Amino acid sequence: MMKRTVGFRVAVTAALLVAVATLSSVRATAQTAGPSAQELLGAQRDVEDWLLPAHGYEGNRYVESTITKANVAKLGKAWTTQLADDGEQEAAPIVWHGTMYLSTPHEHVIALDAKTGKLKWHFPYTPAYVLDFAVNRGVGLADGKVFIATQDCHLIALDAETGKKLWDKTTCFDTTNSWYSMAVYVFKDKILLGSAGGDFGSIGHMSAFSMQDGSRLWDWQTIPGPGQPGHDTWPGDSWKHGGGALWGGISLDPQADMLYVAPGNPGPDFVRDYRLGKNLYTNSIVALDISGAKPRVKWYYQLIAGDTHDADPAMHPIVFDGKVNGSLRKLVAIGDKAGNFVILDRMSGKVIHRISVSNQTGLDTTVPTIKGTTACPNHGGGIEWLGGAFDAATNLFIIPSTQECGFWKRLPGPPKYIPGQHYSGGVSPKRQDGTGVVSAIDVSTGKYKWRKTLAYPAQGGALSTNTGLTFTSDLAGNVYALDTASGATLWKSSTGSSTVAPFSTYRIDGEEYLAILSGQAGNQQTPNLPVPHGSLVTAFKLGATSTIANSSAGQGGGAVVTGANASAQKGTAPYTLGQVHTGKALYGQQCAVCHGAQLQGISAPALAGSAFGRSHLTISQLRTVVTVNMPLTAPGTLAPQQYAAIVAYLLASNCVQPAGGGSGTTRFPNADQPAFKTVTLVGASCPVK
What we know:
689 residues; alpha+beta; 2 domains; five-stranded mixed sheet; globular
């Protein structure tokens, strides 16, 4: 009897152990398989994790925090992690149950231990081409999958636990003029994603894809085609390359199934002679009802009609409930690069307040001319894509912006659409020494409560807390904690590199972390910025007195140059070996910070190899790009012989042989020649020693 009892107890104990192990396994699987659709809907209230690019679907970076006015001075760097893919870092760190997921400019995906910054896994990726400048604004996370959209038009799903690729689809409508740079959003089991490329003659699309396999579910086109409302705002066939890119971000009112998008500037950029009209739905905020099988426009508001100053409404719309004249209203806010900030009734689209937060001298009274005109802000000024934040306790909307003017020129003759090339009637103005300003706007009255000037452009957005703090940054890499009610600076630190990315907050073991990416300023570079010190993630926490410093080991590099065989490049050009060596030195001084020391592309496109060959530039076009657009902060300022030397270096790097053979006997000229229009660069690569 004793033996049977013991045997029975052993059997029961074994069964219980199996049940406990099974339950633990189920719990572990459930934990790694999240977040669920329901958890994403509650992201705005989640204090432990950061599940969406701007915290919740509403786009308002507002959190419950343990960091207060009394203890914020005790914030220190808990850890830093260097990023091998150096460039313009714009991603919001996504955090789920102790793991941080982020993307880099060339679409590498990295998973880090959010407590220590140590690498968990790395998914290497290098886009086959970059048409404009290399940037990625973040991953999406749902049901155990990490999603990323790339500059060569791929939508990719990874296993969140291992980084292993699950599926990969090419999803742009036209890969010759479109790409993805927007963060991926997952809403009710659908992937929501906008396409970029408006300055390359594309048409913006807002698309929904299946989370399971990437199949297309629906699309909404930002430029109305024949038979669609708004098509009559485009003369002739101008709509076919009308722009209206969706690159900054989106927001939703989840309860109403309302999606808010902000299509960018019309094309061709800088001139309106060939597209006279309102050019819907460019430079607008559009409310889309997505409760049915297809999106339906409920209302729109256009900030600027017929834009000629590249004034995208870059800021993602922000959904919030605020008090207007004592009554609580359902609102949405939007801002553009012209410095216009608008608060609207989000149900009807009626404007509540419209405020200019930037100097707008000449903006409404001039257009770019061949001789040039001055207008403010510059193309990198005004309100950029990270926008601001609303604080319900004070009823204040905190909005950073940049003060900078530009000298705007158009090109002679009509712009010509060529797939893979800029579709523009002018050139981006030279960058000036920009400064920043943080404005607190009383939502009830539309008037300023306070304004605070920063020494450098303010493009890092804002994150406000229930404890009365607002965190923000400037382009030099300084990070600030401001008193939301007064604007007073309560804490300041530095990441050491340029900051064009938003903050994320999360908690582990009861400790709150504040994380941000930094790197190169890229296309936002202004002359007054300090030199950055590489790309990295920085996490702050209260009481941190020592910093865990993680290297980029295990991540792999950034972009690389791959090219066709040298023999594939046909044609020759006049240049000498002396010009090539002079040009290489000048390139290193003036161009490498954006285009890379090996011409591989960092925050700007590659200038050799297959990625560069996709643009199908002739030597004449390459020369024009170099002499008119470079260097970024001061285009057209080098001497003619210096530009000629840089072009000679680029031609040699692209395997174009010198005319006459050998090391060349004729110098590359300071002026264009008809023969330069007959040689097209095909994407070969011949590194210059």
